[in-house]
Task: structure prediction
Amino acid sequence: MSGEKKQEHIREMADWWLLGSALVLMGLGLIMVYSASGVMAERLFADSDHFFLRQSLFAVLGLAVMGVAAWIPMGFVYRYVYLWLLAALILLGLTLTPLGVRAGGASRWLDLGSFSLQPLELAKVALVMYLGYFLSRKQDKLRTFSVGFVPPVVITGIIAGMLLLQPDFGGAVFMAMLFFTMSMVGGTRLLYLLSSGLLCLGFGAYMIASSPYRLKRWLVFLHPFQSAADAGYQVVQSLYGLGLGGLLGQGLGAGKQKLFFLPEGHTDFIVSVLGEELGFAGLSIVFICLGVYMVRGLTIALGQDSLQDRFTALGLCLIVVIGGLLNLAVVMGAVPPKGLPMPFVSYGGSNLMVACLCTGLLVNIERRSRR
Result:
């Protein structure tokens, strides 16, 4: 096999590593949703398969989204960057109207009949598309303040501001992380990033200190076992679940935390249920798949000649990887509790669709570079 053909073969196989890690996580997610949600579904809907059947439908739709994203012309995607951004802003704005679904003191969802949409997930992709476009087109002006730094700050600030109005402090932090990471890689002056980063930290500290429930969450995060029956209950139960798992776990379906001890056991804290039932071995599958996804995503980004492809691929990879790492950090009590699902694994259509969309677009970018 010649050198060029061998390199081509390796790159084609690399797509399968990316897809394989995503599909393994999705399959593991279906298994865990079935295990973790049965008791809750039986109580709420008198149907133990309710959440599993819905997640299965989301998975089928997600695979369709992934397939379309892998083959749609990227020129079409890039041509309407500002349209995607506008659509995301409109959807975020609708959550602040009577159309928004209010739950847990926040309005983060839109009611679509028997389903709900979380605009935050689409806004992540829209922001990545915009930043990829901006950073690639303004390379010669990135080190200027007014042209190379202010526009993306304003756009990111508007999105973050709309999320704070919901309120969704964690979502705003996620957007800021995407902005800072992509801008740093894109070539924005570190002085601007450090200065704005300090301002964001100061504003974040003010938001926490001025909000009783945020301050309580932060204090509970520092000492969860001191309020194990109150504000620290969810984190403590999550840690109990992980601790009970041991090396090989209690056995699939044999976990106890999902029996109404651990809130959100099939959504944000599904990894705790996974750890209890499948142990360190099961958690290792999640760690390995996330690691493979990250390595492949970054490799795809680095392998692009087009700067827009490179920055966009980086951002798409970050959406999945940062989401996964933050979810693990919350479940393990390393960061304050926040509603962050595990990509591909947690129950929920919006997050799964966007994770599939990111994967399909990454495959598309890699396939495009081989032409």
Q: What stands out?
A: The chain has one domain: 3-369.
